[in-house]
Amino acid sequence: MRERRAQVVLVVRAFEEADPDGRLLPPVLREEATRRALAVTGLIDFQGRPGRNPRNEETIFRRARLLLDALGRKYPTLLRILNAARHGFGFAPLIVVAALCAGFAGTSLEGGREVDILSFFVLGLVAWNLAVYLLALARVVARGRAPRSARREDPGGQLVARVAGGFLRWPLWRALRAWSRVMEARPEEARIAAEALRRFAVHWQRVARPLMLTRARMLLHLAAVAFAAGAVVGMVGRGLACEYRASWESAWLGERQVQFLVNTLLWPAATVLGKEVPDVAPLRGPGRSGDARPWIQLYGMSALLFVGVPRALLAAYQGWRARKLARDLPVDLEAAYFRRIFTAWRGVRRRVEVVAYGYRPGPSPLSVLKTLLYDFFGARTDIRVREAVAYGEEADAEGVQDAFHPATPAGDDFERCHVVVFYLAQTPEEEVHGRFLEALRAHVRERAERLLVLLDASSYWEAAPAPERVRERHAAWERLLREHELTAVEVELGREGAYPATDELMDRLRLALWPPEEAALVRS
Questions:
Q1: Burial of 396 (0-12, 13-18, 19+ CB in 10 A)
Q2: Which among 52, 24, 85 is positioned nearest to 349, based on CA atoms?
Q3: Residue of 425, 422, 426 lying closest to 486 (CA atoms)
Q4: What order of strands is seen across the sheet that includes strand 488-491?
């Protein structure tokens, strides 16, 4: 999802999650936004008759856009939240200008009319950047050789992450202060907005962390270029009004060592300028100096070669990466929130067939199960509960076919999922449960359908004699299912009332679907 769309969607998601009672976004407004988004994208007609399954990027964005517009009309200050995320790096020019001024001030602080070629400000600047390049190269080589599982973010990367996080937190904090001043008379709504801001920051950092880090690196490279430019401008500016002389002194280095040092460091600049590095011997000691112009030219060109050009190229590369990342942010449209907002419209042309194996759930557990499946697959899903399969029966492909009794032949326009429910209290056996699961897997694979395994733990916790027995039973079921490349979700169908359709449970059900193709049950 593109950056702008992702921001709109995540802002609205944060407000809906922080406002379950509908104080800022009433339920009627949310439902109307859902209906209008589905109608505009052609997934239902304007009379509300459904078409195909609704959850896709365009529908989700249009719904979020409608709700954000409604929030903006009611609370104009809240639009700063989205602008804060979008323009978190909007004050980057100020940082670049500050770096330029710092570089200029650094050369000016040296003072006096003599320039010490060993304590020259740009000498340290060039040496620092060379060290940065070497360390970055060493980290790249080390990360390339290390196993992927052992790779960790280096301290430099952690510093960049803190910088990137600051670019988000600071504007959000300012937006929250402005909102709090406006809403002083309505503290409950201010509290909801503060919680929404916190949730949005969490969602946005999770989705856009690589993008934020890339932009922070780009900004740091641009700041380094500006700092070097300021230093060069400072050097040149100091010589416009006064004549500066160059000299040097050292208690530890002799003339040969200093000459070797400056020859090595300034050789690229001297080659580009077509000049030679001056002799340092006549410049040593009190009262001995020479013309500072060639040294200023050499150090200025060195700053350009060692700092300006490499950092500009690195900034351009990070900018290209940022544009690429901003076009495709990984917003998980399979998350429970996105399933829940379209619950009333999902499930068209989808059929779920349920079979309990080895036991017969009563009417109340079946009602709880159907409620859970409607929450997960959608309210318009055609859920059909088949006759329970007796223990030890239907353990081949033909038996599985008879057990589910599909009402329409394979190849029709229905998306099917088979749900098999085992009782946790049973001891899993490969010759019984394993054979049934393998036959069911073959049936599902042949017909390009899906499979979901549930473990009913109703009353088992109270009946189990000891915690060790419970752990052993769990381990036995996990071992059997793992051998058949399946995962089960434990549920308690015997509980009274509606089963809680939490985000965690919805995500566990999604991960347990087999085969695990992405969005296999959603046709966008």
A1: middle
A2: 52
A3: 422
A4: 382-385, 350-356, 415-423, 450-456, 488-491
- CA-CA-CA-CA torsion for 93, 99, 100, 104, nearest 10 degrees? 160
Query: CA 318, CA 89: separation in Å to the nearest integer?
Result: 14
Q: Rounded mean pLDDT of the chain?
A: 78
- Sequence-distant (6+) residues with CB within 8 A of 49 are none
Contact 255, 280 (CB under 8 A): yes
CB-CB contact of 439 with 399 (8 Å)? yes
pLDDT digits (tens, 9 = 90+) for 54-90: 557 888 899 999 999 988 887 776 676 666 655 555 6
Alpha carbon distance 402, 397 (integer Å): 9
- Alpha-carbon distance of 194 to 198, in angstroms, equals 6
pTM of the prediction? 0.68
Helices marked H in 19-153 = 27-40, 57-74, 79-86, 92-108, 121-145
412-422: average pLDDT? 83
> Does residue 247 or residue 221 have the better pLDDT?
221
- Alpha-carbon span 253 to 234, nearest angstrom: 28
How would you class 467 by CB atoms within 10 Å of its CB: exposed for 0-12, middle for 13-18, buried for 19 or more?
exposed
Gap between the Cα atoms of 417 and 403, Å rounded: 14
Residues 39, 117: Cα–Cα separation, whole Å: 73
Residue 62 φ then ψ, to 5°: -65, -40
pLDDT grade for 165, boundaries at 50, 70 and 90: low
β-bridge mates for residue 351, sequence order: 382, 416
Structure confidence at residue 524 as a pLDDT band (50, 70, 90):
very low
Residue 223 CA: distances (Å) to CA of 168, 200, 308: 19, 29, 10
Q: Which of 431, 450, 429, 464 is nearest to 373 (CA)?
A: 450
Rounded CA-CA distance 294/247 in Å is: 12
Structure confidence by residue, pLDDT tens digits, 285-333: 776 777 778 888 888 888 889 999 999 999 999 999 999 999 999 998 8
Ramachandran assignment for 165, one of left (phi > 0), alpha (psi -120 to 50 degrees), beta (any other): alpha
- The closest of 62, 53, 41, 6 to 524, measured between CA atoms, is 53
Which secondary-structure segment (H or E) carries 258?
helix 255-273
Helix (H) or strand (E) holding 255: helix 255-273
Report strand pairing: 382-385 vs 114-116: unpaired
Chain CA centroid to CA 461, Å: 38
Give the per-residue pLDDT at 487: 92
